[in-house]
Amino acid sequence: MAQRILTGIKPTGQLTLGNYIGVLRDLPKMMDKGECIFFIADLHALTLPIDPEVLRQNSIDLASFYLAAGLDPEKVTLFLQSSVSAHAELNAIMQNYLYMGELSRMTQFKDKSAKMKESAIGLGLFAYPVLMASDIILYDSDVVPVGEDQIQHIELTRDLVNRFNNRYGPVLKEPHYQVRKVGARIMSLSDPTTKMSKSDPKGDIYLKDDMKTVRKKIMSAVTDSGSEVKYDPENKPGISNLLTIYAVLSDISIEEAEKRFVGYRYGDFKKAVADVVVAELEPFQQKYQQIIDNKEYEKALQIGAKKAEAMARPVLNRVKKAVGLLDI
């Protein structure tokens, strides 16, 4: 049986070049590696305040970006998380098997809640890892491709699976994470010590930016002292970030990229980086616009929701039976 590969993206903020390199660009390659399940995590988007119309448009954009990246809705399962009620149902059960201490130690919760008033922190933000774990185990997922900042959540999911199975028997499948080694973390162009994160207009390249804006942002990217184009994240984070972008989009190693730019001035190096980014994003945007104009995302999401429901329901029923809930 082919392995199941599951990944989801929250429809919060505009997607960036970092999202494209870290997730979208590799999705078509996954279609030949196993049974692929890609979802839009719109329920997760509600854990922090978001305008309803923004959420709707972001969800449409994200579905269209998935399709523009080359996903075939007949070969993969592409759907909205909120369209499959089993996510919320399993979350209601699994919240009883993860504990307050575990959830309070989650790095993302601590980082986000530290910036908020205590009275404004919702239960959904605190219990975010429970829903994420439910998303994963609901599809008997084998592999979950993630960024480095999400590894802690997968480890917690594995702890949950083992805890549940120790109590009820072999009910749930234990997932494994997979982190992309090159390009896993694309950094901000204005502050290369921080991740490109949807919230820095100067440092983020958005997937809906026009090509003139893309070039301008890259040419304005922060560089480092010296003049050598060399990969050294500690001492030359700006140049290292641009080298990573160039290497990934050119499908070459960092070492090969370094060799190409021996003797280059920073300005000429940036122009070369801008050229490969534009060459990648321009046709991608054209596909995206065609999908939006023809509303191709609607049929794709409808097909995906039916397929996801058919996969999720048996797992939910296994869990309900295991814990003693009647199925009448």
Question: How are the secondary structure elements laid out?
Answer:
Elements: E1 4-9, H1 17-22, H2 27-30, E2 35-40, H3 52-68, E3 77-80, H4 86-94, H5 100-104, H6 107-113, H7 123-126, H8 128-137, E4 143-145, H9 151-168, E5 176-178, H10 211-219, H11 237-250, H12 254-260, H13 266-294, H14 296-323
Parallel strand pairs: 1-2, 2-3, 4-5
Helix pairs in contact: 3-13, 3-14, 4-8, 4-14, 8-9, 10-13, 11-12, 11-13
Unreliable runs: none
Q: What helical percentage do the residues reach?
A: 40-55%
Which structural class do the helices and strands define?
A: mainly alpha
Strand order of the largest sheet: 1-2-3
Overall pLDDT level: 91
Q: Helix count, per DSSP?
A: 14
Question: What's the order of the H and E elements?
Answer: EHHEHEHHHHHEHEHHHHH
Give the DSSP E fraction (strand runs of 2 or more residues): 5-15%
End-to-end separation in angstroms reads 31 Å
Query: How many strand units?
Result: 5
Morphology call: globular
Assembly of the depicted chains: single chain
Largest sheet: 3 strands, parallel
Jot down its keywords:
328 residues; mainly alpha; 3-stranded parallel β-sheet; two-stranded parallel sheet; 14 helices; 5 strands; 51% helix
How would you characterize the overall build of this protein?
The chain has 328 residues and is mainly alpha-helical. The protein is 51% helix and 7% strand. The chain contains 14 helices and five strands. It has helices at residues 17-22, 27-30, 52-68, 86-94, 100-104, 107-113, 123-126, 128-137, 151-168, 211-219, 237-250, 254-260, 266-294, 296-323, and strands at 4-9, 35-40, 77-80, 143-145, 176-178. It has a three-stranded parallel beta sheet with strand order 1-2-3. It has a two-stranded parallel ribbon with strand order 4-5. Helix 3 links the parallel strand 2 (35-40) and strand 3 (77-80). Helix 3 (52-68) crosses helix 13 (266-294) and helix 4 (86-94) packs parallel to helix 14.
